[in-house]
Request: fold
Amino acid sequence: MSDFPKSLIDIVDLSQENINELLEIADDIIANPKKYAHRCDGKKLATLFFEPSTRTRLSFEAAMYDLGGNVIGFSDAMSSSASKGESVADTSKVISCYADIIAMRHPKEGAPLVASMNASIPVINAGDGGHCHPTQTLADLCTIRREKGRLDNLTVGFCGDLKFGRTVHSLISALSEHTGIKIVLISPAELKLPSYIKNDVIKAKNIPYVQTTDLDSVLPDLDILYMTRVQKERFFNEEDYLRLKDSYILTESRLETGKDDLIVLHPLPRVNEIAVGVDKDPRACYFKQVLNGKYMRMALILKLLGLEKGE
Ligand code: CP
Reply:
């Protein structure tokens, strides 16, 4: 079995072998949940959320409870000593005295990396600014594999805020390791994919890609449509956000040109970019993604604590 990193900060920290192992553990958890119900008895997860979250924080907490463990933490930076000026480094050293593993979300890119360098326990990046969100990528990969039966030979459209959408950055990196991937980038000019991802990942790995502002013209070609929210919290001025927020709205009629076996993903939260009527379309898989996120976080906690085989 391949080495597993001490912490998970960026999806590129995981080898293909690591990711495959997590996918297999998650499949086994789904098939045999009772087998895992006491794997983390006596262990504590600390959820340190310096930025709002519903899915990531609560799915980490649900994951730890489903493994028999306990959870401590905070969901608002203002209720922690960060509000008094405590550094991420010191917070991480302190939490290492109380818990066995940390999941951290922070508005500053690199904060979970700093935490991992100072903590004596594993640290999981639960989203850092506009940088990356590796556990969302694990949820995305699990959903793609379970729904499409493969992670290769796929044409994947990313639509919306590709500039600030950290889940897009992480998923492109992960998919770039597979053969036969084609990327379609659909965004307004102001919200294009950052050039470091385009150059260092897509171009560096010779992945065929198309860049467009027109969703309708590319929708019939896609195997996966990954919709994203325009990230209001990363904008410097409200006027730009209001102008761009409804750039793409996926409706039932718009989806008519999509393939029968298309899958529609969205990391959520949704604001306005997918009409609620689309939810009943069997191709809408974003709520399955939410559930798969919990199973992948269970698998990750087990691997980082070395408990995947039990004690
Ligand atoms: N997908 C995701 O990160 O959702 P939350 O912000 O609710 O955690």
